[in-house]
């Protein structure tokens, strides 16, 4: 025997105690088939919520405590002879209901999408995270709604760390399809606030992202140079991990530099300086922030789909129109071969097209060190030299190439070559350095300190005493055949310039300064590298490893130069 009850709850009217207890008893004594009434069309949250329950009759409702029966079920225990009803959170109306069997047909808007006025529907039930992990583990494609549910669990903190790790590993091992990657990117982007800029800036908003390498200080030079060429660069950067240096760590070696800024401050800086380089706030793509912490400790960082979602969700949330990706390839990069890098590049380009983000990917060489300096203060010093027109060839070439592409993508110039010339001019006429100085001042640096950084960075930034600078001598004469950038980067990390975990503090003053590059001639007994260390003497382990980082060929006359930019996709 069954009986039906139509419960119509006016959102603006109180429910009587008798009627509430009636429905509580009905829910407590039965399994429930819960479906949204379709006859009248989707309900509006401003009108009535109509729910129809079809319930089996229980002649002895008094045998159960109705309040205890409605508690959330701990499915790890088997103390009930009948399972409790899993809780559903209604994101649209902010109410909670209970789901019975698999016939549930309640539908709802996905977080971050817009529903027409007066047609918002009841939100979809929360999906079991265990079910999602099982599905992805077995190699099945997750739907947009399922990925949204996973992201919601991540941001709300309702997922256990082991569940997030399991899902990330399933995604890493099974891979993400293009559609899954797009869904993950969109859901993470909409997990927090999205930056909005004045409409007149739309075509000028650009950014660059690098996968990281040794001595990679390109952002510090590129952003102000692009600003000098008339573009707007809202750059949200990160910290370094392992042997790769972080842009924020480098900039924080400048006394007073602030990375956490309000939206109003960001707009003012972008208006006046043309660029900012800031940190990711807690409200900007919080889902990526949570997932990245787990990716690092679960060995799931290298997955192309997860990398793509992480990068593009942040860049889309920045509100940029055009993006240039710098994927490093070689011994001192995460991607060791061009083939590996092309897989990631293709994923990024395909996902960007669907998102409507104008993106190009440059594959650039990273076998040795980029520039001559590695370390936080040291790389700021070399960046200032580049903005004075006195930088090393590889830094200048890469800045001009990446910037030239962005200028052409925005329509500021007709060809990439024309854009390169425009970038080169900004590095030599002082305009890039002027924008860098303005950016520093507006991000908290005292004006006198900012001026000193631009004029004489060695005296303005933290450095070690001369007694703690040790030169290593060449053991033979010849031509430098190669410099092991990975070994040099790891030695700098161990000196204190890098970190193995995000909670680890770094020393901004330590690092190395190369005195030679590949193809240069060296003489036996002459210095080839300076080591800036915090201890009174250089650690012996660092000394020995650095000795093995240089290869000198006594018979070689010259080393063929390889272009730093391998290809642009």
Commentary on this structure:
- Among the domains are: 2-98, no CATH class; 129-175, Transferase, Pyrimidine Nucleoside Phosphorylase, Chain C (Transferase, Pyrimidine Nucleoside Phosphorylase, Chain A, domain 3); 466-553, Alpha-Beta Complex (Aldehyde Oxidoreductase, domain 3).
- The protein is globular and about 70 Å long.
- It has helices at 17-28, 66-69, 129-137, 144-156, 161-174, 178-189, 218-228, 247-251, 263-272, 286-297, 304-318, 338-355, 376-387, 393-409, 416-428, 431-442, 447-455, 457-460, 485-497, 540-547, and strands at residues 2-10, 33-36, 48-56, 87-89, 96-98, 206-210, 233-237, 275-279, 322-329, 358-365, 373-374, 469-473, 478-483, 511-514, 521-522, 527-532, 550-553, 565-568.
- Mean pLDDT is 81; it is low at 1-124.
- It starts with a strand and ends with a strand.
- The protein is an alpha+beta fold.
- A hairpin with a 6-residue loop joins strand 4 and strand 5.
The rounded distance between the terminal residues' Cα atoms is 67 Å
Q: Share of helix among residues?
A: 25-40%
- The SS-based structural class is alpha+beta
Strand order of the largest sheet: 6-9-10-18
Please report the number of helical segments: 20
CA-based gyration radius: 29 Å
Average residue-wise pLDDT: 81
Query: Which term fits the overall shape?
Result: globular
Strand portion, in percent? 15-25%
Largest beta-sheet characterization: 4 strands, mixed
* Number of strand elements: 18
Low-confidence stretches: 1-124
């Amino acid at each position: 025997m069954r009986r039906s009850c139509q419960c119509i709850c006016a959102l603006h009217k109180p429910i009587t105690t008798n009627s509430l207890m009636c429905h509580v008893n009905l829910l407590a004594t039965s399994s429930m088939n819960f479906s949204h009434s379709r006859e009248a069309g989707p309900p509006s949250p401003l009108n009535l919520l109509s729910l129809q329950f079809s319930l089996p009759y229980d002649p002895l409702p008094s045998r159960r405590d109705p309040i205890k029966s409605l508690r959330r079920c701990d499915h790890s225990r088997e103390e009930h002879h009948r399972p409790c009803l899993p809780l559903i959170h209604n994101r649209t109306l902010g109410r909670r209901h209970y789901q019975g069997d698999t016939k549930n047909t309640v539908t709802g808007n996905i977080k971050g999408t817009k529903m027409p006025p007066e047609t918002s529907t009841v939100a979809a039930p929360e999906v079991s995270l265990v079910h999602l992990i099982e599905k992805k583990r077995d190699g099945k494609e997750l739907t947009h709604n399922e990925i949204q549910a996973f992201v919601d669990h991540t941001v709300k903190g309702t997922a256990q760390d082991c569940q997030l790790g399991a899902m990330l590993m399933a995604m890493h091992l099974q891979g993400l399809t293009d559609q899954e990657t797009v869904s993950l990117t969109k859901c993470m982007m909409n997990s927090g606030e999205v930056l909005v800029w004045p409409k007149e800036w739309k075509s000028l908003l650009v950014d660059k992202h690098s996968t990281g390498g040794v001595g990679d200080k390109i952002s510090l030079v590129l952003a102000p140079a692009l600003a000098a060429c008339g573009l707007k660069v809202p750059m949200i950067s990160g910290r370094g991990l392992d042997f790769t240096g972080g842009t924020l760590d480098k900039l924080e070696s400048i006394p007073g530099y602030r990375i956490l800024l309000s939206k109003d401050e960001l707009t003012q800086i972008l208006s006046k300086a043309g660029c900012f380089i800031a940190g990711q706030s807690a409200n900007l793509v919080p889902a990526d922030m949570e997932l990245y912490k787990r990716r690092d400790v679960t060995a799931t960082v290298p997955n192309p789909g997860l990398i793509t979602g992480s990068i593009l969700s942040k860049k889309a949330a920045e509100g940029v129109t055009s993006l240039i990706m710098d994927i490093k390839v070689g011994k001192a990069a995460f991607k060791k071969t061009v083939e590996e890098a092309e897989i990631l590049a293709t994923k990024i380009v395909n996902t960007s097209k669907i998102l409507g983000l104008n993106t190009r990917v440059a594959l650039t060489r990273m076998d040795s060190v980029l520039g001559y300096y590695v370390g936080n203060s040291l790389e700021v010093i070399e960046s200032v030299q580049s903005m004075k027109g006195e930088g090393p060839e590889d830094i200048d070439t890469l800045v001009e190439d990446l910037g030239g592409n962005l200028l052409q993508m925005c329509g500021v110039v007709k060809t990439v070559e024309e854009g390169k010339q425009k970038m080169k001019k900004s590095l030599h006429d002082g305009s890039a350095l002027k924008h860098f100085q303005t950016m520093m001042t507006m991000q908290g640096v005292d004006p006198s300190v900012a001026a000193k950084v631009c004029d004489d960075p060695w005296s303005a930034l933290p450095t070690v005493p001369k007694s703690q600078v040790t030169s290593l001598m060449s053991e033979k004469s010849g031509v430098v055949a190669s410099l092991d950038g990975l070994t040099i980067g790891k030695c700098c990390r161990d000196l204190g310039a890098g970190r193995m975990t995000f909670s680890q503090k770094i020393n901004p003053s330590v690092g190395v300064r190369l005195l030679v590059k590949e193809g240069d001639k060296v003489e036996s007994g002459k210095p080839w590298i300076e080591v800036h260390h915090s201890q009174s003497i250089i650690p012996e382990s660092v000394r020995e490893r650095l000795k093995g980082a240089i290869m000198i060929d006594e018979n070689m006359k010259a080393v063929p130069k390889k272009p730093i930019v391998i290809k642009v996709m």
